[in-house]
Amino acid sequence: MPRYVLGEMFSGPGGIALGAEQANRSAAEAGCQSSTAHGWAVEYHPDTSQTYIRNIAGATESSVFTADVREFDLRQVPDFNAFAFGFPCNDFSTVGEHRGLEGDFGALYTYGVHALALHSPEWFIAENVSGLSRANGGRAFGKILSALRTPGAAALTDPNFTEFYGDDAACVSNDLEYELVAHLYRFEQYGLPQKRHRILITGIRKDVAIELGVKFRVPAPTTPLPSQQKTAREALERDPIHPGAYNNHRISHPQSVIDRLNAIEPGKNAFNTIFTDESLRLNVKGATLSNIYRRLNPDSPSYTVTGSGGGGTHMYHWAEPRALTNRERARLQTFPDRFEFIGGRPSVRRQVGMAVPPDGAQAVVEAMLKTLDGVGYAVDRGGPNVDVDTLIHAYEIEDERTATEALPDLVLLSDTEEAADSTGGTELEPDAVLGSREVDVEAKNAAEAIPERRAG
Fold it and tell me: Which pTM does this prediction carry?
């Protein structure tokens, strides 16, 4: 059976790569002979690249490229036959300006399409926020799916591709086609201690699917009921974090922040709390997102871990009046304590929040390996919950109503939930004393200057 060499674009610190490593083991236990191995990765942010190299098996300075994908030459990467990319989500998130494909980052998905067109790997996985489904009235999603289904045809009509690759573009097949499955995954239903809802698109090259006689199916949730789901308390307390663990530095808060947190009950935030001390109330107009000074509910999965935001957006412990450490946030993202993030605290916060949770990636990569090897697994009887064919058709005929109807209530409801859980980036008082203003400014500047792969 084949050993799939994995190439990655917008790789982040290695959430998908680590999930693939975990999937190798779990798939082998189920009888699979196929596996994945690191081939190469491209990431814009230097600290994030170093984190990937430090933690991912086989990753080296020569296989992990720190580069802007818009200037990166895909002809320099080693051969690969599997591909993963979590294209930037800023313009698809349910908070912010919702600019979709017209935004600064909305069209970056095309560079993943270029990789597919130029190298035609046997399969791929793409990831983005649930807000992708509604960008540009649903038509953006249809356009992206159309390009992923026939990446050769899409690339050959893209001047950025044909001008950059010149004569090599002529080698691209206009007939290259992938069998797509798109699904909104609620990761708390897959054993993660976090309510994180993401769209994952899987593609198997059509000739491969026909030859093997296979079709990817959405894996069944392992913890579909609230009573089965892993809680924040379980994630952070069942196996206590060693005080000397990587990235476990605690923020020193001003007394006003401590007093405010002491007045907020677990699961509550600064806007649904009735303060008896008026000085603790936030006097901020228009900032009523539920994550502002929001304390975790210890008896349910956490709300979405995110990578940016000003004061009041750092996630807060249910019993202690403090922000979570980056190691605690990494645990909610299912990174093991041995996984060391490189960089200062704001940089690590960014990396943790924007990563794909390894355990979530594992569920999908494992299902892919089992699909390709013909090994059975439990499938979601209600999936996929995204109608790929209808969305592509709606894009082709420019019909927003058809696109909207192709998105089930499950997706639309998730958008509402994600909006409640996403960061607002509101400039509130700093969370930390002595230099905390510089910390917040650095985090804000990083979020503005660097294409953010995912908002949480």
Answer: 0.87
